[in-house]
Amino acid sequence: MSLSASPVPQTGVPGVRHSTFESLRLGRSSQSIASGLLCFWDSLNFKKDSEFMGITVLFLDEKVNSVTHGFIPTEHANHYMSSLKAGSIVKIDRLEVARCSSMYKITDHPFLIRFISPTIIDEVITGAPEINLQS
């Protein structure tokens, strides 16, 4: 069973191949997504003396009002922190897609993007898809 989605080339924009949120598939995969990184914050467990649980990230897809969230667990937080820049366009490779528990659901999207050890996140400087971060 293949868990990866076929990358969708961005029409007229060389270099950045990615899938949209609609084509995300459950499980660990080699698919890539390009999105706007809206904001991020520390996730704390207030029932355990505000224990740091990881970093929650909000991503905006090319489609207006298509937002999903990501999660970077504690063990990977230091590695990815320097790559997070609110308002940037990023490409994320080698991610895990999971169903979002209703208890932690912060967007209407049914999935969340989980960062795992092989995940790569890079800011897209040239050839980025058009994403209206103001929407």
Automatic annotation (TrEMBL):
SUPFAM superfamilies for the chain: Nucleic acid-binding proteins
Q: Pfam families under this entry?
A: DUF223
Q: Where is the Replication protein A 70 kDa DNA-binding subunit B/D first OB fold domain?
A: 50-122
Species: Brassica oleracea var. oleracea
Lineage per the UniProt record: Eukaryota, Viridiplantae, Streptophyta, Embryophyta, Tracheophyta
The lineage's top-level taxon is: Eukaryota
Q: What is this protein called?
A: Replication protein A 70 kDa DNA-binding subunit B/D first OB fold domain-containing protein
